[in-house]
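Sorry to interrupt, but I need a hand with the structure work. I would like you to pick a protein and set down its sequence and fold. Please put the record directly below this note.
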Amino acid sequence: MNISERVNNMQASPIRRLIPYAEKAKKRGIKVLHLNIGQPDIKTPQIYFDYIKNYSHNIDSYSHSAGIVELREKFCEFYNYYDVNLSSDEIVITQGGSEAIIMSLSVIADPGDEVLVVEPFYANYKGFAGMVNVNLVPVSTTPEAGYKMPEIIDFENKITEKTRAILFSNPCNPTGAVYSKNEIERILKLAKKYNLWIICDEVYREFVFDNLEPFSILSFGDYSDRIIMIDSISKRYSACGARVGLLATKNKDFHREVIKIAQARLSPSTLPQIGTIGLLSLGREYINNIKKEYQYRRDIVYEELNKVDGLYFKKPKGAFYVSVLLPVDDSEKFVKWLLTDFNVNGYTTMVAPLSGFYVAKDSGKREVRVAYVLDDEKIKLASSILAKGLIEYDKLTKEEKLINV
């Protein structure tokens, strides 16, 4: 039977593809500290469940294809805080931010078209692009520069007649870099010059540290006709399983076309939308407290990793990730080894190899992403295991090299 080239060319999730190794470790009785995936351990607010429990309808019916109107109106109120004036018919509720990106790429690009992406990037962008036969063209950042936004000339050097958009997340998953308003405006000017779309993933918008203030790309009103903003409740409210995301745009042509896709898949799930209406009533105090918690964890993971010899990284300014350059030849082999051959008193650590967060296969081979989504004691334990693992792994690799001489 035939298998499509589309899926043959898609990569397995570099975040999830090593899960079988973790599952085998657990079957052997090893406790795995998961710093590999952006699944917070913070409790989902009870109001989410209460709103669903109190839903009075006796049929779990389809919602509007663009999402429940009351929910879209609630999001409009939410974005007012960021000087973004949206109406409910400029928002489409999606099954997580993932579906929002897939829909966006489907509308703005044909098979074979190109989208510039700031790399390293959220690994699933690669999968989304593969699903719609769009080619990602990387504009690279480096650990040495703190993964800062590339210069405009770096983007211009990659623009061709097939380029349709620029895609990035701010704050950045996986690096924790935060792009300033000046940097964003330069990208918007570039997009206007070359008539490109901007897809800005703002799932981690509120998680910016060290007195930085969050903002939305949609606050740049002069460029709103080419902006597609992506958002999700997954991280902000620790509700990854709800799969409630959205895309927002001022461009009426784009909105009209994306609604066709929304209608084709009928509607987003109804009950999680109901629960999200409750979450959006929590206000700024809840969000500020969560932000403080992640800054606290960021400070701990930064302090703990600084104790580990041979690591190279800079203090992240946002999201809840830090990308680290390891003193190993192949980070994926090292991560597998931590799960198959190493533990400290029955515990081991799992992080995400960063090679899958790049377009080129050989890029990011020595880097990993650490997600500080566990409490402070678990972060400290996981970091100490990582340090001991690196020492032991270095001994083993040196011994192997001697044997092979």
User: Anything to note?
Assistant: DSSP finds 13 helices and twelve strands in the chain. The first strand starts at residue 31 and ends at 34.
